[in-house]
Structures are given as C-alpha cells and as structure tokens.
Amino acid sequence: MFDSDVLVLPPEQTLGNTAPSGLFGLELEFATESVGSLSDAELVDAAVGFERLAAWAAARQAAVLAEFQGRSGDGSVRAVSAAVPLREWASDEIGMALTVSRGTAQVRLAQARRLSGVLRPTRDLLEGGRLCWSRARLVCDRLALLDDTLAAAVQDRVLPAAPGQTWAQLDAALRRAILALDPDGAAARHRSARAERRVDVFAGEDGMATLWARLTAPDAASSYAWLTRLARGLGSEDPRTLDQRRADLLAAVLTGRLVLRDPAAAAADTVAVVPVTPGKPLITVLVPHSTLTGADDAPCELVGYGPIPALLAREVAADAVWRRLVSDPLTGTVLEYGRTTYRPPAALADHVRARDITCRAPGCRRPAATCELDHVVPWDPDGTTGEDNLVALCPAHHDLKEHPGWQTELGPDRALEWTTPTGHRYRTGRHDHRTGVSGPGGRARPRRP
C-alpha cells in the first residue's frame, strides 16, 4: 500500500511472527528437523515460534479446564454421585490427571475460570502467542483478589503494552495500575501487609541457611543501600566480594560481634566499620506533586522496587531530604556539554538517570542509579556529552554494546534501538513519569530488517 508516497511493505513472515496453531506446530517440527541448516536468525525465530506455540497450547488447555469445571453433575461428564456436584471433585480429578497436588489443581482451575470470564482478553493474547503463560499467570495472580469490575479496568490499562514487557515489567505495570485504580484498597492492603512484617530463618544445604525479613519497601531498600555502603567502606584491599562483605557484616552486627559507630567516633577505633559515604542511604521515590500535597492518591515509584501506595510515599516524604528533578525549561539545567567534557556533570547525570529510571537494555530493570552513563555515539572520536547522546546502561549491557555485531541508536524521542548480531531489532523508550510505563510501545519490540 501507499502512504504519503512511501511504499509500505508487509513484514516478512517468519517462524517468529506466524500465528500459532496446530498446523503451525507441524510447520515448526518440519522446519527444525535439521537445526544445523538454519541460520542464526532462523534459530532465534524458531525459538520464538516454539514460545508462541506453547502459549497457544496453554490457552487451549485453560479453555478445556474451565469447561470441565463448569459442567454440572448431570452434564455430559458424570458426577461421582448425585450428592457431590462436579465442582467439588474437579480439582481431585485434574490433579491426578496432570500429576499435580490438589491445591495446585485448584489454582489452575481458578485461573482457567477467570481466563474464560473477565480475563478473556488476556487469554486471547495468550492464544495468539503474544503473551507467554508465565505472564498470563501473573495477570491472574495479581488480579485474583479484585472484583470483576476492578480486574477488568486494570486489565484494560496494562494489556496493550504487555506483549512487549518482561515478567518484571508487567508485574510493575500491574501493581501501578492497581494503585491508580484502587487507591483506598491499596492503602488498606498495605496496612494489612505491614502488620505481617517479620523475620524468619530457613534451613539450606551444605551448612547454610537463609535469614529472611518482610519489611516495608523503603525500609528494605534503605537497609540494603546502607549495608552496601558499609561493605564498600571496607576498602578495595578486602579480598572478599561485595556480596560476601554484606553477608559477613550483617551477621556480625546482628550477633553482636560488631558495633557500628559514626565516622567521627570511629577515627581512633580500628574495630568500627565506616560507610563509604556518611549520612542516610539514598533512596529515590518519584512522587507526583498532587500526591505529595494530598490532593490525590496517584501511585508513586520507589526506584529499584516499583510502584508503592501514596500513603507509604508520603510517610517517606515526611522523613526525607528532597531533590527536585524537573525538565530543562524550569531549572535552566545545562543538558548539553558538547565536547568540553567526557564525564557528565552531576546535574546532567541526575537528569538522564531520572529520565531512564532503569537500564535501557530490553528487559533489564537494574535501577539507573546504579548504572553507568553511556555515550551512544562514542565520545572518542566525535561523540558529545549531552542528554541526546547519553543513556543509562548496567555494566553488563554497557559491555555487551561494545561487542562486535551489536549496535545502538538513540532517536529524537529518546527511544533507544538495539540491533543484535542476527539482525533483530528491539526498542526501549524513556520512562513516562505520568503513567509509570516505559515507552514507546513497551520495552522490547522485536522486528526483523
């Protein structure tokens, strides 16, 4: 077809974008009988094809399970007895048939029933191969306690972007949507969950165990940040890894073998541990001004964790030092330094990290606060140090970008396009602080050249 004198060709059909079906399963079988003859790109497409086929099968199975449970005792499936309706023994029958426990079968049947009812749009995406079963199950789990009206509203909000999101990204989107659409219920659920805070211990193998704590999200994030500062404060000459230092310090503090003192008091004391930087641990909470003032209860974002209720964000605000991060027209912050400096000044670094929120690699949710700032066009020989050439990348993806065959390009809308060695392309967008969603169109949109 023609659009503004530009010829728009339909996408090339591959094993990775064909609608799944039983016949497609046969096509996949024949196409992959000799995997050694497939190119790298074809192998990737085949892997996607099998993923889509598995999703299609899961959706069909959900329809079957829902029909089985929904039949009455006098239907085509005969009940055990007239006094025992089918619903009461369906989980036992399915548990035996699928070799799972009765409780697991009950959950599977409940999910199937919801997917055939209010969550039918989610099942349709699953059947079309656009959503894997783990993400469809996540939708079921997060909406399990919501009534049908609220569940449908949350589903309508998150589903358009869901096919391009990882499990963790979809989880954050679901939690944010629930907070936005049911702020009163979110506050009540947080109070209930907060009452269940506790510490527990679980036996492990090889003489190890897990110490587990259920805390509020800000307390957990702050505790981990402070423990990391203490671990880094031991110095680079310490032979232990950072994880080992954190574990050893936690055990030493909680068992009384180590007492923490402030830096001044520790100057003449070689036993005390001093953090690498003093003061309260830095945690970043993104709060709309209207929520901060109490005008509404819009969901807020604890960077590195995800959405939190407005009630909890205001509690954090009452005991915090705030830094206002706004766009250039309001602050006059310089966002372009050209070739005058390689290392981004603090104001520019803050702006880029606040813009990106997480690593800009598809599917990565490492907080931008712990990421490196990468020059998309290398500074040497001719890249610039500016907002239009900087993105947050975790060390692993920063290193990956430099490998042969990998390319990145930052567009005018700050969407970052990745091209892999097989020719597949993926896009990630800057974070939209109004919706809490990274755009445009999700964080990972594969397409072939």
TrEMBL record:
Bias class Basic residues marks the residues at 424-433
Residues covered by region (Disordered): 420-449
Q: Where is the HNH nuclease domain?
A: 347-399
Q: Which InterPro entries match?
A: DUF222 (IPR003870), HNH (IPR002711), HNH_nuc (IPR003615)
Entry's Gene Ontology molecular function annotations: endonuclease activity; nucleic acid binding; zinc ion binding
Q: Which Gene3D superfamilies match?
A: 1.10.30.50
**Family statement:** Belongs to the Rv1128c/1148c/1588c/1702c/1945/3466 family.
Which protein is depicted? DUF222 domain-containing protein
